[in-house]
Specification:
17% of the residues lie in helices and 30% in strands. It is α+β, with helices and mostly antiparallel strands. It has a three-stranded antiparallel sheet with strand order 1-2-3, with no helix packed on it. The chain has a two-stranded antiparallel ribbon with strand order 4-5.
Length: 76
Amino acid sequence: MDALPRYERKCSNPILLLGGEKLCGYPEELRAKMAPGMRIVVIGRGTWMGVIPREVEPLDLAKLSRRRGRPAPAAP
């Protein structure tokens, strides 16, 4: 994940994903919490064209485990 400049020609406030894909239109507050190489969670609806994101957030393993009804992983 990498935060690009605030405005880009066809994609405002983009989040650049590994592989060159972009998520567009995300608030600066979310982008400010991110750093290059950080892992994120994208939650949304899957289609034959890919995922239509509903939520994007920095990866929090404990929170992800709670959503799936599993115990949180042990700290390293």
